[in-house]
Design brief:
By secondary structure, the chain is mostly beta strands. The protein has 3 helices and 17 strands. The radius of gyration is 21 Å and the shape is globular. This is Porin.
Length: 399
């Protein structure tokens, strides 16, 4: 009954928007992507509701939430207001093609993206709502892994994409977002007020991103910064990143650096949303800090260098190799650790919208990074072992 009501609500929203847009003579686009992959992995883990490991071993099955990309559908539109102004909106919901349910399962958000805004032909774009943060946008605009697979529609490809775990959840609630482009330079800024009584700082997030993205030039550059404040204690969680992309003929090379710095008592950020339990599950804080944030635990500093190369064997056939190298220091020795991760992937475009792909990845963990979910937004389970190997084949279609 719950799933039926959700589908009915989605159809009602779609019907209302399309009808309203016709009256206002707006342009409205229904878009989306369905991606399913079959994955085999070693040292997989199943977890109970409280995060306790229940069983381990090799596993094969359809990947949850999608394969090379999370599956999603969305509606976006714009209305010409005259004088160089346009009204904008976007709604986007993610789902699990393996069972048709919302993704992440149990998520409180039906729409992963929900924003409304205004665009000026001279002053840029301002939007409000739940949106991608500027670090996520900056990295995926220039030097994120496997950008070749996104095509013109979607750059947020997240198959085995460890750098995504460094991006403060990639999306933020209650965000005020501004973007502008001057020639080949793109500037992004965001602010998410915490909404805490008596404090403008607690639970807030602020970020900046600057990118050089010429359409024809071989080099792209980018850098971003994001600062998040804890809901209760004003503790900070900072993200710093910079990187570049070099394209020469059919070969593209990318390289980036991304760093997280965390105050010990940063344990809660509802705008993420990240509850203390979520942060403990991600290996960011210690489980005991969910009860007492002042106890020492979690990581202090985490750094990643990532790089990769892709080559178009033909216009339709692409092969790529990627590597991620992470080092972490903690507030206790239990959170000191490192991770080395590698990937080979190949994709064949049957058309502009349909892609077949195959992938293999290998990860080795030491110390406090074991089981820290340093694998990307979906497809692979975090392991409690010191190594893991995965292989996947799949297909995706965009519309």
């Amino acid at each position: 009954m719950r799933e039926t009501n959700a589908c009915g609500a989605a159809l009602a929203v779609l019907t209302t928007l399309l009808a309203s847009s016709a009256m206002a003579q707006s342009s409205v686009q229904l878009y989306g992507l369905v991606d399913a992959g079959l994955r085999y992995e070693t040292n997989a883990v199943s977890y109970g509701p409280d995060g306790t490991p229940l069983s381990t071993g090799s596993r094969i099955g359809l990947t949850p939430g999608g394969g090379m990309t999370e599956s999603y559908w969305g509606i976006k539109g714009r209305e010409d207001l005259g004088g160089g102004l346009k009204g904008l909106f976007q709604l986007e919901s993610h789902f699990n093609p393996a069972n048709g349910r919302n993704w992440p399962e149990g998520s409180a958000e039906f729409f992963q993206i929900a924003s409304v805004g205004i665009e000026s032909s001279t002053l840029g774009q301002l939007s409000l709502g739940r949106q991608y943060n500027v670090v996520m946008e900056g990295v995926t605009m220039v030097y994120g892994s496997n950008l070749w697979a996104g095509g013109d529609q979607d750059q947020y490809v997240n198959l085995f994409k460890p750098e995504h775990i460094f991006m403060a959840g990639s999306k933020t609630n209650k965000m005020i977002h501004y973007g502008a482009q001057l020639g080949d330079v793109v500037f992004l800024a965001q602010y998410a007020p915490g909404g805490q009584p008596g404090s403008f700082s607690r639970g807030s997030q602020v970020g900046l991103s600057l990118s050089y993205v010429p359409e024809q030039g071989p080099v792209k550059l980018g850098a971003s910064f994001l600062r998040t404040k804890d809901d209760n204690l004003k503790a900070r969680f900072d993200v710093y990143t910079a990187g570049a992309q070099l394209a020469l003929g059919g070969t593209t090379i990318h390289a980036g650096y991304i760093e997280n710095r965390r105050d010990n008592n940063f344990t809660s950020f509802a705008n993420g949303p990240f509850s203390p339990t979520d942060l403990a599950g991600l290996g960011i804080i210690a489980p005991e800090q969910t009860v007492d944030p002042t106890l020492p635990g979690g990581f202090d500093r985490r750094r990643m260098i990532f790089t990769g190369i892709s080559y178009h064997v033909t216009p339709a056939f692409v092969v790529a190799a990627n590597g991620w190298f992470t080092r972490q220091t903690g507030y206790t020795d239990a959170f000191d650790g490192s991770a080395n991760q590698y990937q080979l992937v190949a994709g064949y475009f049957l058309s502009k919208r349909t892609l077949l792909y195959a992938e293999i990845d290998r990860a080795r963990y030491k110390g406090g990074l074991v089981g820290a979910q340093l694998v990307g937004l979906n497809t692979q389970s975090p392991t409690i072992s010191s190594n893991q190997t995965g292989m996947m084949i799949g297909m995706r279609h965009s519309f």
